[in-house]
Amino acid sequence: EAEAKPFVDHMKFEPLEDFFPPEVPFVAFGGTTHDGCKVTVVVNGKDPVYGTGVDNVGTVPASLITFLALQKERPDLVINAGTCGGFKRMGAEIGTVFLTTGVANHDRRIPIPPFVPYGIGKIETVPAPKLQEAHGFKLGVCTTGNSLDKTDEDDKLMEANEASCKDMEAAAIAWSCKLFDTPYMGIKVVTDIVDGDKPSHEEFMENLHTASVSLQEALPKVIEHVCGRPFSDL
User: Fold this and answer.
1) What is the model's pTM?
2) Which superkingdom (predicted)?
3) CA-based, 20 to 30 A from 188: which of 103, 108, 135, 211?
Protein backbone atom coordinates (compact mmCIF):
# COMPACT_ATOMS: atom_id res chain seq x y z
CA GLU A 1 0.00 0.00 0.00
CA ALA A 2 2.80 2.43 0.93
CA GLU A 3 4.54 1.78 -2.40
CA ALA A 4 1.40 2.24 -4.50
CA LYS A 5 -0.22 5.23 -2.75
CA PRO A 6 2.05 8.04 -4.05
CA PHE A 7 1.52 6.88 -7.64
CA VAL A 8 -2.24 6.36 -7.25
CA ASP A 9 -2.59 9.81 -5.66
CA HIS A 10 -0.40 11.47 -8.30
CA MET A 11 -2.43 9.95 -11.14
CA LYS A 12 -5.74 10.68 -9.35
CA PHE A 13 -6.90 7.11 -9.92
CA GLU A 14 -10.18 6.00 -8.37
CA PRO A 15 -10.93 2.76 -6.48
CA LEU A 16 -12.47 0.07 -8.68
CA GLU A 17 -15.24 -1.54 -6.66
CA ASP A 18 -16.05 -5.20 -7.37
CA PHE A 19 -12.90 -5.63 -9.50
CA PHE A 20 -11.91 -8.73 -7.49
CA PRO A 21 -14.08 -11.54 -6.08
CA PRO A 22 -15.31 -10.74 -2.54
CA GLU A 23 -13.35 -13.63 -1.04
CA VAL A 24 -9.96 -11.97 -1.60
CA PRO A 25 -8.57 -8.86 0.15
CA PHE A 26 -7.05 -7.38 -3.00
CA VAL A 27 -7.67 -3.76 -4.00
CA ALA A 28 -7.74 -2.13 -7.44
CA PHE A 29 -7.52 1.46 -8.67
CA GLY A 30 -7.85 2.67 -12.22
CA GLY A 31 -7.91 5.53 -14.63
CA THR A 32 -6.78 6.82 -18.00
CA THR A 33 -3.56 8.73 -18.70
CA HIS A 34 -3.49 11.94 -20.75
CA ASP A 35 -2.33 9.78 -23.66
CA GLY A 36 -5.51 7.74 -23.42
CA CYS A 37 -3.78 4.69 -21.93
CA LYS A 38 -5.98 2.67 -19.56
CA VAL A 39 -4.08 1.79 -16.37
CA THR A 40 -5.18 -0.49 -13.55
CA VAL A 41 -3.19 -0.60 -10.30
CA VAL A 42 -3.68 -3.65 -8.09
CA VAL A 43 -2.34 -4.09 -4.55
CA ASN A 44 -2.45 -7.11 -2.27
CA GLY A 45 -4.51 -5.57 0.52
CA LYS A 46 -4.34 -6.57 4.18
CA ASP A 47 -4.02 -10.05 5.68
CA PRO A 48 -7.42 -11.52 6.66
CA VAL A 49 -6.18 -15.10 7.12
CA TYR A 50 -3.74 -14.89 10.05
CA GLY A 51 -5.41 -11.94 11.77
CA THR A 52 -2.36 -9.67 11.58
CA GLY A 53 -3.80 -6.89 9.40
CA VAL A 54 -0.42 -6.34 7.73
CA ASP A 55 0.10 -6.06 3.98
CA ASN A 56 -0.05 -9.36 2.12
CA VAL A 57 3.43 -10.06 0.75
CA GLY A 58 5.23 -12.93 -0.94
CA THR A 59 4.63 -15.22 -3.87
CA VAL A 60 1.24 -16.70 -2.91
CA PRO A 61 -0.80 -13.46 -2.96
CA ALA A 62 1.36 -12.13 -5.82
CA SER A 63 0.56 -15.00 -8.16
CA LEU A 64 -3.14 -15.02 -7.24
CA ILE A 65 -3.71 -11.28 -7.61
CA THR A 66 -1.89 -11.29 -10.95
CA PHE A 67 -3.91 -14.25 -12.22
CA LEU A 68 -7.22 -12.66 -11.24
CA ALA A 69 -6.27 -9.27 -12.72
CA LEU A 70 -5.15 -10.88 -15.97
CA GLN A 71 -8.34 -12.91 -16.14
CA LYS A 72 -10.41 -9.76 -15.59
CA GLU A 73 -8.59 -7.22 -17.76
CA ARG A 74 -6.56 -9.11 -20.40
CA PRO A 75 -4.03 -6.23 -20.47
CA ASP A 76 -1.38 -5.64 -23.14
CA LEU A 77 1.36 -5.39 -20.50
CA VAL A 78 1.90 -6.08 -16.81
CA ILE A 79 4.36 -3.86 -14.92
CA ASN A 80 5.64 -5.05 -11.55
CA ALA A 81 6.36 -1.71 -9.88
CA GLY A 82 7.76 -1.85 -6.37
CA THR A 83 10.71 -1.76 -4.04
CA CYS A 84 13.54 -4.26 -3.78
CA GLY A 85 16.83 -5.05 -2.17
CA GLY A 86 19.87 -4.31 -4.32
CA PHE A 87 23.36 -5.76 -4.59
CA LYS A 88 26.28 -3.36 -4.31
CA ARG A 89 28.40 -5.86 -6.24
CA MET A 90 26.07 -5.14 -9.18
CA GLY A 91 26.22 -1.36 -8.75
CA ALA A 92 23.07 -0.87 -6.66
CA GLU A 93 22.65 2.01 -4.23
CA ILE A 94 19.69 3.18 -2.14
CA GLY A 95 17.19 4.71 -4.58
CA THR A 96 18.61 3.03 -7.71
CA VAL A 97 15.86 2.24 -10.23
CA PHE A 98 16.19 -1.12 -11.99
CA LEU A 99 14.50 -2.13 -15.23
CA THR A 100 14.58 -5.90 -14.88
CA THR A 101 15.83 -8.16 -17.65
CA GLY A 102 14.48 -11.35 -16.10
CA VAL A 103 13.33 -13.06 -12.93
CA ALA A 104 14.34 -16.19 -11.01
CA ASN A 105 13.75 -17.84 -7.62
CA HIS A 106 16.44 -18.28 -4.98
CA ASP A 107 14.53 -20.25 -2.32
CA ARG A 108 12.95 -23.09 -4.34
CA ARG A 109 15.64 -25.68 -3.75
CA ILE A 110 14.58 -29.01 -5.29
CA PRO A 111 17.73 -31.16 -5.72
CA ILE A 112 16.14 -33.62 -8.16
CA PRO A 113 17.67 -33.06 -11.63
CA PRO A 114 14.49 -32.47 -13.68
CA PHE A 115 13.13 -30.11 -11.00
CA VAL A 116 16.23 -27.91 -10.65
CA PRO A 117 15.38 -25.54 -13.56
CA TYR A 118 11.72 -25.58 -12.50
CA GLY A 119 12.68 -24.50 -9.00
CA ILE A 120 14.87 -21.66 -10.26
CA GLY A 121 12.10 -20.67 -12.66
CA LYS A 122 13.94 -18.22 -14.90
CA ILE A 123 11.66 -16.04 -17.05
CA GLU A 124 12.83 -13.21 -19.30
CA THR A 125 11.10 -9.84 -19.20
CA VAL A 126 10.07 -7.75 -22.21
CA PRO A 127 13.14 -5.90 -23.59
CA ALA A 128 12.92 -2.09 -23.44
CA PRO A 129 16.30 -0.68 -24.55
CA LYS A 130 14.92 2.75 -25.55
CA LEU A 131 13.22 3.13 -22.16
CA GLN A 132 16.43 2.23 -20.35
CA GLU A 133 18.52 4.61 -22.44
CA ALA A 134 16.05 7.50 -22.10
CA HIS A 135 15.95 7.41 -18.31
CA GLY A 136 19.23 5.79 -17.30
CA PHE A 137 17.66 2.89 -15.42
CA LYS A 138 20.04 0.12 -14.43
CA LEU A 139 19.44 -3.32 -15.93
CA GLY A 140 19.49 -6.60 -14.05
CA VAL A 141 17.80 -9.82 -13.00
CA CYS A 142 15.36 -9.71 -10.08
CA THR A 143 15.55 -12.76 -7.83
CA THR A 144 12.56 -13.71 -5.67
CA GLY A 145 12.17 -15.43 -2.31
CA ASN A 146 9.58 -15.51 0.48
CA SER A 147 11.84 -14.10 3.19
CA LEU A 148 13.08 -10.56 3.71
CA ASP A 149 16.36 -11.87 5.07
CA LYS A 150 18.56 -14.51 3.45
CA THR A 151 20.47 -17.69 4.22
CA ASP A 152 23.95 -18.63 3.03
CA GLU A 153 22.34 -20.98 0.51
CA ASP A 154 20.13 -18.13 -0.73
CA ASP A 155 23.30 -16.08 -1.26
CA LYS A 156 24.83 -18.80 -3.44
CA LEU A 157 21.71 -19.09 -5.58
CA MET A 158 21.24 -15.32 -5.90
CA GLU A 159 24.81 -15.03 -7.15
CA ALA A 160 24.23 -17.95 -9.51
CA ASN A 161 21.12 -16.13 -10.80
CA GLU A 162 23.36 -13.08 -11.47
CA ALA A 163 20.84 -11.06 -9.48
CA SER A 164 21.02 -7.27 -9.33
CA CYS A 165 17.95 -6.93 -7.12
CA LYS A 166 15.90 -9.09 -4.74
CA ASP A 167 12.20 -9.03 -3.93
CA MET A 168 9.36 -11.26 -2.70
CA GLU A 169 6.99 -11.22 -5.69
CA ALA A 170 8.55 -10.77 -9.15
CA ALA A 171 8.99 -14.41 -10.16
CA ALA A 172 5.41 -15.21 -9.09
CA ILE A 173 3.96 -12.29 -11.06
CA ALA A 174 5.97 -13.24 -14.14
CA TRP A 175 4.79 -16.87 -13.79
CA SER A 176 1.13 -15.82 -13.89
CA CYS A 177 1.86 -13.58 -16.88
CA LYS A 178 3.42 -16.53 -18.67
CA LEU A 179 0.19 -18.53 -18.24
CA PHE A 180 -1.66 -15.81 -20.16
CA ASP A 181 1.21 -15.13 -22.60
CA THR A 182 1.17 -11.51 -21.39
CA PRO A 183 4.40 -9.47 -21.58
CA TYR A 184 5.92 -8.66 -18.19
CA MET A 185 8.13 -5.72 -17.16
CA GLY A 186 9.69 -4.94 -13.78
CA ILE A 187 10.48 -1.47 -12.39
CA LYS A 188 12.14 -1.84 -8.99
CA VAL A 189 13.55 0.82 -6.62
CA VAL A 190 16.21 -0.18 -4.08
CA THR A 191 15.38 0.26 -0.39
CA ASP A 192 18.17 -1.85 1.12
CA ILE A 193 21.54 -3.30 0.18
CA VAL A 194 21.40 -7.11 0.36
CA ASP A 195 25.18 -7.55 0.49
CA GLY A 196 25.70 -4.56 2.78
CA ASP A 197 26.40 -4.17 6.49
CA LYS A 198 22.96 -3.15 7.81
CA PRO A 199 20.13 -5.61 8.55
CA SER A 200 17.71 -5.62 5.59
CA HIS A 201 14.59 -5.00 7.68
CA GLU A 202 16.05 -1.90 9.33
CA GLU A 203 17.31 -0.42 6.08
CA PHE A 204 14.03 -1.25 4.31
CA MET A 205 11.93 0.63 6.87
CA GLU A 206 14.34 3.60 6.86
CA ASN A 207 14.14 4.01 3.09
CA LEU A 208 10.62 2.83 2.20
CA HIS A 209 9.10 6.31 1.97
CA THR A 210 11.99 7.72 -0.09
CA ALA A 211 11.91 4.74 -2.45
CA SER A 212 8.12 5.00 -2.84
CA VAL A 213 8.45 8.65 -3.89
CA SER A 214 11.22 7.67 -6.32
CA LEU A 215 8.94 4.98 -7.72
CA GLN A 216 6.13 7.51 -8.17
CA GLU A 217 8.53 9.71 -10.15
CA ALA A 218 9.76 6.85 -12.37
CA LEU A 219 6.50 5.05 -13.08
CA PRO A 220 4.66 7.82 -14.99
CA LYS A 221 7.72 8.10 -17.26
CA VAL A 222 7.56 4.37 -17.91
CA ILE A 223 3.84 4.40 -18.68
CA GLU A 224 4.20 7.44 -20.96
CA HIS A 225 6.98 5.65 -22.83
CA VAL A 226 5.21 2.31 -23.34
CA CYS A 227 1.70 3.64 -23.99
CA GLY A 228 0.74 3.11 -27.62
CA ARG A 229 4.15 1.78 -28.68
CA PRO A 230 4.69 -1.61 -30.31
CA PHE A 231 6.84 -3.92 -28.19
CA SER A 232 9.51 -3.84 -30.88
CA ASP A 233 9.96 -0.09 -30.20
CA LEU A 234 10.27 -0.12 -26.39
Assistant:
1) 0.94
2) Eukaryota
3) 108
